[in-house]
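4.2 Preliminary Data

To establish feasibility before requesting continued support, the project team ran the inverse folding procedure on a target of 494 residues. The structure was first converted into the token representation described in Section 3, and no sequence information of any kind was made available to the design step. The complete token record follows.
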């Protein structure tokens, strides 16, 4: 029992450290690249990434989760399954690579990147590399060896700094990013296999393949729906507009998402573990969910409102002078992120903790059914129209998620709103102060001082708010892994 608890605590620690570290380094790389590459280059990379990630969905086929979650009869059964997963992934990657080569002109024509067929082919070799990553990664996670995964991830995320940035400085434009991504994947593949004790053998079991596909169906379906939710706007902008608009759109969104994820990704592992332990205790389950939700809202709401009010300053710091058209995107996406992350980010954790992951698929599908026709309707109008529609549908998706929590789990919407209300009205007061200060002086350097003033003002408002006084102590306790896991977390291991 103690050995297992210690192993789980250690795994959670390394998992969180790896996630936070990678989230910090990725934005730094993009901030540097934004000053070396034009927005069009980022738009081309976004389009190429859309294609690669789509094929990669089917290459992976949900086998990764199967290897982690399934209860195997023996170690030999695990090795047999790993073999089937590896050879299946490799075969599918070869098939999709051939399809890319054959239909490269059709693909580039559809996505308005004509003349970049060679770039697409080179980038698609990443499918082969990813086939060598999935299985050892899953086996390391199954064994709770997150320290190895941390070391691999940290080593890999520095590759773009070593390869991509020097090539971009030398004028290789979008080629620098493609080569850097391939280098990062190759580094991950080599290190992951070195850290894993598993190696493939020349054997294959078709009955096992059938069993794996049956198990992975819902995981695969959910991955496809999530992919469509993330990438459908990229496809529509590529089809109706051009690489410039796509570049400022995806780059701005990515930076904001990464900033928000620094907070949220550090909390998710702890939240899911805590909720899973309390899945049969509805009262305590709701208390813990609301506590974590309030903690996150206290941080991300002022971040989102601050990005909206100081959008020009944020754009100048994060992207540079040539990205002025991105300021509105950063502002609106930051503001909507304050709402979405505070009110809807944890929904999928609730579904999984309650043993109902299919609800995530249903919720995402409803969201997608609204998003696609809405974007298509305004796609041939203006970029600004598309942006506003995307943000509105994103917020609407959060409302749908709240409805699911209320209907399926009897978590009252009123309780959720009251829970995050202090974050929003103190954040709104901070935002109003920032807006008034900008009216006095909109100099970028002076705005940095205004950001500090607004931050102090926000913290002061929280300090005099009775309902938030004890939350920071709860944050400290929540991130003490011993406190979280020691209290009945793993009684099933006895």
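Position-by-position output of the design step:
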């Amino acid at each position: 029992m103690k050995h297992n608890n210690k192993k789980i605590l250690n795994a959670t620690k390394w998992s969180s450290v790896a996630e936070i570290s990678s989230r910090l380094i990725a934005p730094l790389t993009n901030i540097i690249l934004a000053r070396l590459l034009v927005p069009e280059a980022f738009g081309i990379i976004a389009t190429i990434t859309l294609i690669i990630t789509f094929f990669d969905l089917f290459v992976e086929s949900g086998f990764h989760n199967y290897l982690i979650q399934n209860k195997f009869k023996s170690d030999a059964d695990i090795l047999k399954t790993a073999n089937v997963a590896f050879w299946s992934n490799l075969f599918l990657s070869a098939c999709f690579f051939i399809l890319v080569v054959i239909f490269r002109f059709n693909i580039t024509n559809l996505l308005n990147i004509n003349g970049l067929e060679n770039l697409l082919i080179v980038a698609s070799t990443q499918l082969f590399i990813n086939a060598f990553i999935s299985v050892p990664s899953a086996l390391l996670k199954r064994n709770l060896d997150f320290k190895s995964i941390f070391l691999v991830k940290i080593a890999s995320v520095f590759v773009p700094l070593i390869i991509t940035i020097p090539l971009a400085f030398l004028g290789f434009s979008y080629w620098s990013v493609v080569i850097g991504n391939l280098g990062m994947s190759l580094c991950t593949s080599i290190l992951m296999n070195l850290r894993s004790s598993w190696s493939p053998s020349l054997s294959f079991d078709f009955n096992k393949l059938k069993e794996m596909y049956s198990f992975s169906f819902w995981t695969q379906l959910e991955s496809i729906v999530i992919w469509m939710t993330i990438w459908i706007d990229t496809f529509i902008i590529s089809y109706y507009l051009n690489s410039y608009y796509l570049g400022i759109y995806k780059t701005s969104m990515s930076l904001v998402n990464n900033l928000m994820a620094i907070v949220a990704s550090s909390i998710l592992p702890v939240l899911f573990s805590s909720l899973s332990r309390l899945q049969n205790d509805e009262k305590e389950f709701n208390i813990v969910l609301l506590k974590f939700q309030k903690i996150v809202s206290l941080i991300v709401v002022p971040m989102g409102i601050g990005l909206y009010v100081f959008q020009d300053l944020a754009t100048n710091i994060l992207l540079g002078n040539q990205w002025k058209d991105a300021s509105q995107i950063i502002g609106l996406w930051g503001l909507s992120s304050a709402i979405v992350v505070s009110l809807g980010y944890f929904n999928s954790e609730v579904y999984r903790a309650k043993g109902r992951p299919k609800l995530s698929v249903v919720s995402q599908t409803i969201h997608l059914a609204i998003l696609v026709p809405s974007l298509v309707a305004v796609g041939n109008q203006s970029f600004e129209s598309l942006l506003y529609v995307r943000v509105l549908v994103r917020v609407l998706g959060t409302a749908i998620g709240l409805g699911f929590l209320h209907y399926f789990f009897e978590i009252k919407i009123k309780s959720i709103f009251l829970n995050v209300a202090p974050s929003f009205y103190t954040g709104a007061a901070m935002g109003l102060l920032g807006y008034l200060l900008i009216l006095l002086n909109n100099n970028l350097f002076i705005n940095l001082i205004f950001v500090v003033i607004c931050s102090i003002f926000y913290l002061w408002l929280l300090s005099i708010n009775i309902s938030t006084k004890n939350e920071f102590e709860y944050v400290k306790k929540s991130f003490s892994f011993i406190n979280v896991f020691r209290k009945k977390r793993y009684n099933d291991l006895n």
